[in-house]
Write a structure and sequence with these properties.
Helices cover 43% and strands 12% of the residues. The protein is α/β, with parallel strands linked by helices and 661 residues long.
Amino acid sequence: MTLLTSAPPLAPERAPSRPAPATPALPTQQRRLAAWSRAVLAPMSESRRSRLLARVGGLLATWSLIAYLLWRVLATMPASGPWRWAAWLLVMFEALPLLGSMTKLITWWSIDAPVVPPVDAPPAGMRVAVLIPTYNEPAEVVGPTIAAARELRPVHETWVLDDGDRPWLRQMCEALDVRYVTRAEHDHAKAGNLNHALALMAAEQADGADPIDLIAVLDCDHVPLPSFLTATLGYFEDETIALVQAPQAFFNDGAFDDDGYTGEQGLFFNVQLAARQRAGAGTFWCGSTSVLRVAALRAVGGVAQETVTEDMHTTLKLQRLGWRTAYHHQTLALGLAPETPEQYLVQRRRWGMGAMQVLVQERLWRRQKWMSWRTQFEYLVGTLWWLEGLVTILALAIPATLLVTGAATSTVTPRTFLAVFLVSFSLRLWGYKLLLRRQIRWRTAFALRVLRVPVGLACLWWLLSRRTLQFAVTPKGASHLRYRGRVPRTVVGLMACTLGLLAYAALGLADYVPWQTDDSSTVTSGLWLVLAVGVLLHAVLRIRAEQYATTRRAAHRFPVTAEVLVDGRSAELVDVSVNGAAVRLGGEALSAGYVTLALPGAESLTMHVAAEAPGGTVAKLTLPAGDWEGLRTLALWLFHTPAGAVAQLPADIPVVAVTSR
């Protein structure tokens, strides 16, 4: 049933490792640090300049859209005729973003909220356990999380909840001195795994063990930084707080949803949740990088198992009973973002269809008296957002239909319409970017919106069928084969239809095929389709890009330069991961077999010479299989970097902040 190995009651204080002699770093090219690194040392707060620009941008975007719509109504509409209704239909389509623009302007007017200072010990002597649920992830993914969680302060327990019954993971837990837990029945996926741990805690408490009051939950690919517990535990001085959620940031730059800044989820964690906290609307549990009160979870019957988005659903249950939630806007853990289009779609489909389950089961469209209006609005918008793909299809269908029917929808010249449209559209994009605190990159946002078309269709399918959903784990780690992403058939169909329609319209304007629409109306509708083709093409190229193909490499590499010792010889670190490193040597090549690598400020590692470049200039070193202590050393050097280990890094910023750009 439950296997418990190496289960100390609390993680004891450990003696510091004996470091290798620190050596001065070689001159190195300055690399860009990840955007999330700015929030590692303290919670994010918005500057007055950023707040002012956001408000100006939001007002500009809203008023530019209003001005454009007024121009369309007053200057471009047919005075009479059978197609006047079609012209109004197109204007109403163009007005769709207005409500969203005004809502964002109001709800994101200010995003700063008070924070609770860090603590050195849990409030009122509470006992804390860090829970790491895992299923089928490789050692390179789960190992760093376990190693970093083990080293957190203050004193706590670390539990690894293995739903995959893997002997090697049990051995890793024994070697790293953490508790290993498994269960006989693997039902209800992650929610069932967490509930089994809660039941085990209750059983041990009944047998006389001290109760565990707080659980910190980390997905097995979310590596905690040293301040994870000290920054969040202070909130629980307030006995009404059931949950503290922190942002989810990602260390694998170049992932599929990476936009070169904070990624697709940067807007959600750095603007939306921060604004909710300020308004008192309460964040919801995002599954990882969070701390929960055990008593609150037990009050609602444990983690929700009725939907595949157990985190959001559990939060609703907590808030219904009067429990409060808090958002701490500081980078406290780092995870792995989906690296391929397939991984992205698996994850987003689960989130989207799970949101539909919550929408239906909780009837969020009906007034919930136990919620504030703002809280219910946020939940309703947050669930309906997953139907965005259907809106994208509608955005293509309306101008396409008007183009095909020959509807006369504009009376101004094509050149005038094009000029006014481009000016208005550009001002809106620029203004929205400021309102969104620059947490968006439009090229990436438009490409990912196309991929959410199949997600929206999947959500609609569930709303119509109401079939039972299975929890789909997002694949992580290496692949045996390398292949490029496959473009979803819905995207291929949209691209083919739009291109075909535009080609036919061009032939019609040139009098090669029958065409009833005048030039002005063709440009009015066709402009939206040209824009759509550009977005669709960009999405297809991103999906098929070699950069987002599957890889045989199990661990992300960080291009860090530092002086190291290899068998006592001076060498230069080229890159490093949780299971290997590349070093540049001078003089003779390394002999085949094993060498000793000493990283600045860390214990020496025994590594295997996996490959060497011609001439012996760069050698690739890997950890031996099953060397869990070596994996721990590398993981802590990367995520809990010793002070002064890498000269170009600011103090207390981990090595993983160094990007490949």
